[in-house]
Amino acid sequence: MLVVSHLLPILVKKSYKNLVDNLAIQLNYKKIPQNWCKKLGEDNKFISIREHLWGYRFPSSKKSLSSTFDRFKKEPRHYATLCYVPLPGLCTFHEDASRNRIYSILFPRGTSPFIRMVMSNKDELFYDGHAYSKMIDSPFFHAIVKFKWHTFARWYFLTYFIVVVTWFSLLIASSTVDLNKNMEIINLNNDYTDKITIAATKSYMAAVTMIGNLNDATNTFVNNMTIAEASKSNIELITKAISNVAASKIYNVNFTSEINKAAIEAVYNAIIYNTTFTAGISNSTITTINNNYVTEINKAISEIDITAINKLINSTDGNQIIIACTIIEIIIIFLLVRLLIIFKINGLANRVLRVPSSYVISTGVLFNLIVVILKLSPPEAFRSLKNFFLEHGYDCISVFQTITIFISVLCIVGYLCLFRNIGLYAYIIMHICRRAICILFLLGILLLNVSYATMRIFATTIPDFDDDKKMYNKNTYDNYIKTSNNVWSGFLNASYDYMYPWDSRYFVSIMRIAFSLFASIIIMNLLIAFVNNVYEEVYKRKYTEWTMFRARAIAYIELTCSVPNNYSFSSFCFINRKNKDYFPPTIIYEANTEEFKKWHDELPNLEKQLFDSTYPI
Q1: Residue 124: CB partners within 8 Å, gap ≥ 6?
Q2: Is 81 in a helix, a strand, or coil?
Q3: Taking residues 343-349, what's their average pLDDT?
Q4: pLDDT band, residue 259 (cuts 50/70/90)
Q5: 395 assigned to some structural domain
Q6: Structural domains in the chain (count)
Q7: Taking 80 as the threshold, does the pLDDT of residue 251 lie above it?
Q8: Within a domain: residue 205?
Q9: Of 405, 401, 393, which is closest to residue 186 (Cα–Cα)?
């Protein structure tokens, strides 16, 4: 059987599915020989409080590998039988040819048959058609995974998970500090805008007042009205210009200067020369008013205190947090790079580079590095990048922080999948999303087609006349974004209020009925049926899905956290691959008698005959 253990990964890789399936049936529930445990009777049955498939190493160890966590794994008393995995050497490593101690610790060579078999799948998801599907679904494989997880893998995972959660907590704390700072900047921006708006209003009224009583004919309009009423249109244009700049430059480092500049240059805007007030006075008078206004507004600006604004903009609060976050991220990057190198030298790099989760993690790390660089760099650095986002109304750092946090949450959820209650349903969701790509792609094309077709006809169709408002209804299809939102809203809610401007047209009623039939009845029910079928299919093997995911995580941990030899200076953070407490020749596990009977009864007749011909319990 030692030869079979080493040939098993090759059989899986070469897709000898029938042979592997038959072998998997014969390897399950093998009773330990009588001489292995003389305390038990001939039937090897005893009363246990351990969960089904709880494993031990063989030969037995004097050192207890149980922990506080195991106390929560106790089950009601039940009959169990000791079985073993009849594949000696499946979990052991071959000798490392490297003689360099440092190199062996940093980048250990060698893999076990267990790792090669687990990593033979190029996808993160489990499919029945894979050559090792029956092997992964076997009780003895579940027993191996449980043993490895309980003895060492969970401790390394929890350590790494604590590091990731600490990094994420620092990231959230830094983002919260920045959010509070941005909110304060927004409030100060609004206050400063209000002050400048009031100052501009008073300055313009003062500038007009300085002209005195205008007696010439061209200024009779001003003389016949109060100054406030006469200059109202101009003041509204000035304040509007100030508000627009204040809103668009809110994340600009020197937004006060931009607002001041807008307040000064507002009187030279071409629009202001077309108002009734400006058209009623001479050019020389306009020039005088403008000069007076600039003098008054500059005086008012100089009296406004902006110390608090500058202090807040130039504050470095949160930089200490982001530095601590960066230190932890450097550690995480080192671990990820080391993992990739180890997989590369052991011929498993393609398995890492072909799974989507690797790119999700890499993207999260990359975006966080961008955030760190942007936050710790001088304000004038990366000005073109920041201005690009400012032109579209976004804060550059906030955008990258948002993406980083979103991806980081996905990564943490991925790590939490190692816990059963979370992992079982997370993988069901992943299967549904993976298989729904084609139907969602088709749905997207259809919705885009409907959006363009409806915009093309309604954009050039005159809306109905509203007798109450004495005006034509507003066109709700005047741009493609609004049209897409209308169609999407109709698809989700079956609400067609956006077609109200053309309710009197017969073809609108026909379109509404046709789209309702297509979207609300056919497509929605098709999606529901599709999701339900995938859910039922995956739910039947949800435990196997989760076990496979945990097995891959254990393979990652074994490759990166174990070393070929027992080096004293590395024993505190690495385990020795020659330590039989963690890598035994074989594994003994407890088989719950009731669970075995249930498994045996569910076997197809041919597989049941094959199993019964060997060594059943």
Answers
A1: 355, 356, 357, 430, 549, 552
A2: strand
A3: 86
A4: confident
A5: no
A6: 3
A7: no
A8: yes
A9: 393
The predicted model gives 441-459 an average pLDDT of 85
* Any domain includes 387: no
**Whether residue 88 sits in one domain with residue 1:** yes
Q: How far apart are CA 162 and CA 165, in angstroms?
A: 5
What one-letter code names the amino acid at 129? G
Q: What percent of the chain has pLDDT over 70?
A: 85
Residue 317 has pLDDT above 80, yes or no: no
Per the structure, the complete domain to which residue 604 belongs is given by: 1-116+127-137+564-613
Contacts for 56 with CB less than 8 Å, ≥ 6 apart = 147, 587, 588, 589
Q: What is the DSSP letter of 96?
A: P
Query: pTM for the complete prediction?
Result: 0.78
The encoded tokens of residue 271 equal: 């629009």
Q: Is residue 439 part of a domain?
A: yes
**Are 133 and 126 a contacting pair, CB within 8 Å?**
yes
Distances, alpha carbon 360 to alpha carbons 357, 373, 409, in Å: 5, 20, 11
Residues 542 and 445 in one domain: yes
Say which residue the tokens 């790494």 belong to.
Answer: 160
Q: Is 301 exposed, middle or buried (0-12, 13-18, 19+ CB in 10 A)?
A: buried
Q: What are 64-84's pLDDT values in tens digits?
A: 445 555 555 667 888 888 888
Residue 418 banded pLDDT, cuts 50, 70, 90: confident
How many Cα neighbours within 13 Å face the side chain of 386?
A: 18
